[in-house]
Amino acid sequence: MNKTALLIGASGDIGREIARTILKEGYITFLHYNQDKQTIHNLQEEFGVEKVIPIQADLTSDDGIHKLKNSTYSSVDAIIYNAGTTFYGLMTDIDEQTKQHMIQLNITSLYSTVQAFLPEMVRKRYGNIVVISSIWGEIGASCEVLYSMTKGAQISFVKALAKEVALNGIRVNAIAPGAVSTKMLNNLSEEEKQEISDDIPMGRLAQPYEVADSVSFLLSDKSSYITGQVLGVNGGWN
């Protein structure tokens, strides 16, 4: 029997690669997106509409969580929470709406999404939850204080929940990517990207598929005794 996964944030560069990876591994996948419907449509064309079930929801609001839950027609075996946004600037320059949206998306909606699907995982005594956090959630970043705070909260969530549900056969882990070559870095110049690459021991940015491969590992039986951990995908950059 095919396993079922819910991927939150499937339309971005990393999300698309995670989707392609787990779909190749046979998961029937609910793919959440907010605005970029075309990416999800492309995945449906590639893998088939019976394997790819789109869910549109704005998770910066409580209504989005209700829509997400009501749009799934079955329990899920795995949740991959990849949603997130960032703001680059001084802490004092962040307006209230930006602050509330980021807290809602990165913390509140993560909690509420898992809370909605966890009881069925507990009943089945099986489940796998992977949260895409960030290196900044571990070490913090100047001019990304709010983002660092919310990503750090995700890591605390993973470590606490893993202890709570381990006896129920549910594993909970996080991935903390470093600098990844995605559109999120489009605000940087090529010179700035090169400076970051030069600061990374491996001398380059990560590629989205490398994050996706790490998700694949944490979902697989090869990581059957791993829970409550943060896997750094950062090329030695810390």
Automatic annotation (TrEMBL):
Write out the similarity annotation: Belongs to the short-chain dehydrogenases/reductases (SDR) family.
Any one GO MF annotation of this record: oxidoreductase activity
- Quote the InterPro entries the UniProt record gives: NAD(P)-bd_dom_sf (IPR036291), SDR (IPR050259), SDR_fam (IPR002347)
Q: Give the matching Pfam families.
A: adh_short_C2
The record ties this protein, via PANTHER family, to: 3-OXOACYL-(ACYL-CARRIER-PROTEIN) REDUCTASE (PTHR42879), 3-OXOACYL-[ACYL-CARRIER-PROTEIN] REDUCTASE FABG (PTHR42879:SF2)
User: Can you name this protein?
Assistant: SDR family oxidoreductase
Species of origin: Sutcliffiella horikoshii
Q: Which residues belong to the signal peptide in this entry?
A: none
Looking up NCBIfam families in the UniProt record yields: EF_P_mod_YmfI
Record key words, sorted: Oxidoreductase
